[in-house]
């Protein structure tokens, strides 16, 4: 049992790495304010963007966690999430990466949006000119 009880606080490799890079970016931003340097401020902003992208990439690689508490045996921060490959339900990061879409394409939907290939004749409802090939 940890100091926090049985709560899953989400300590993951993705979370700790993103936090460490984010703290560094915030420190660089603070240095930019003290030095009144626009260049250092932009550098700090770039490091913060890097922190977000790194955390997102690690989450997608399985080093994050799904929404909600995990089972007790999966709460260690170095435990890899094997469900990340298919996307987590309700996860914005997974949706932005194109994962977790559960709606399969129906045959009726595919038939409605089908475009005839060359040589299949004119589209239904289209007008053709006399003598046009």
What is the CA–CA distance across the termini?
Answer: 78 Å
Q: Tell the overall outline.
A: elongated
Relative helix content: 40-55%
Counting helices, strands and paired strands, the structural category is mainly alpha
As a percent range, the share of strand residues is under 5%
Indicate the low-confidence ranges by residue numbers.
107-111, 115-121
Structure annotation, total helices:
4
Structure write-up:
The chain is mainly α and 133 residues long. It has four helices and no strands.
Could you name the key traits of this structure?
single chain, 133 residues, mainly alpha, 4 helices, 45% helix
Give a summary of the structure in a few sentences.
The chain has helices spanning 13-35, 38-63, 92-96, 107-112. It is mainly alpha-helical.
Which helices and strands occur, and which strands form pairs?
Elements: H1 13-35, H2 38-63, H3 92-96, H4 107-112
Helix pairs in contact: 1-2
């Amino acid at each position: 049992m940890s100091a926090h009880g049985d709560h899953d606080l989400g300590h993951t490799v993705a979370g700790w790495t993103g936090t460490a890079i984010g703290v560094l970016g915030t420190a660089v931003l603070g240095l930019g304010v003290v030095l009144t340097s626009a260049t250092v401020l932009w550098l700090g902003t770039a490091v913060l963007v890097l922190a977000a992208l790194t955390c997102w990439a690690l989450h997608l690689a399985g080093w994050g966690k799904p929404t909600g508490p995990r089972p007790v045996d999966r709460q260690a921060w170095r435990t890899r999430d094997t469900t990340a490959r298919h996307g987590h339900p309700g996860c914005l990061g997974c949706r932005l990466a194109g994962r977790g879409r559960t709606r399969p394409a129906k045959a009726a939907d595919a038939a409605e949006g089908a475009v005839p290939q060359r040589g299949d004749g004119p589209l239904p409802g289209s007008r053709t000119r006399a003598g046009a090939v």
